[in-house]
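User: My instructor asked us to take a sequence, write out its structure as tokens, and then describe one feature of it. I'm not sure where to start. Here is the sequence I was given:
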Amino acid sequence: MILRSALIFFVALIILKGSAFARHIDHVRATVHAWAHAWQSQNLTRYMSFYSPAFRSGELGYKDWLNKKAQLFQKPVTIRVEISDLWVFIEGNRATARFVQSYQGPNITDTGEKTLLLVNTNDKWMIISEKWTPLPSPAPTSEKLTTITHQQTLGPELQPSDQDIQNQKTLHPNEIIVKNIQFHVAENYEEVCLNLNKFTIPVIFSLENKKPRMVIDIKDVYVWTGDYTTPVNGRLVKQIRTYLHQKINKLRIVLDLNPAKDYIIDQSYSPKEDSYCVEIK
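Assistant: Let's start with the prediction itself. The structure tokens for your sequence are:
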């Protein structure tokens, strides 16, 4: 049985509206970078201007958050806030921004994944929710070692070397293994399917400009054979690129698309086969 996006797991349809969509994404990205700069400069007024009065983080509302930050900013110290691997997903007047946040202060240094939920109010993106999750620490060396191999179907450059196959990799409890990536061409659509070791919900978003791209991010991937580029030369999908972010254990799959006015994206998952597919029209 195949579970379609419209039923349970996914937003059924994402229609990407060219330059207007790209402009909103750029606006959110600029807002996130400006927010980080205001935080680093410890300018309380500027920093809080990015937050909606409806903001909540756990049990803290806007006023609680303001009081908390006012106490922290009262005695300015040198801090450093860096963001990387930023992606943005927009649906209607709401946006999700997720990125890796590295913080350095006089007493604390940490790295984690930050998720900001924003709402567009009077053409301004305001933060209404904030969540930070520390990145997973390396697994203990006492964990059982299991040999993991990959079978890629996108060309010889994606095949692991004999040395890769012989090397034993630590199998983490929540590890996601992408067994292979397949590209299918039909009369009215093109499809990219991932065969996995178990169910997971990837994060998918688009980058719209002169070189449109569809990005699929899969967390908890610890093993991949490297950075690859595979031309597929479809009508819509030109090539597929993969890259493993080893620091955060995330596999990024990028579909380089041919320029078009609109793309319609449909996602589906087959529990029986543990396969995840993205259909592009």
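For the description part of your assignment, you could build on this observation: The first helix runs from residue 18 to 41. Try explaining in your own words what that tells you about the chain.
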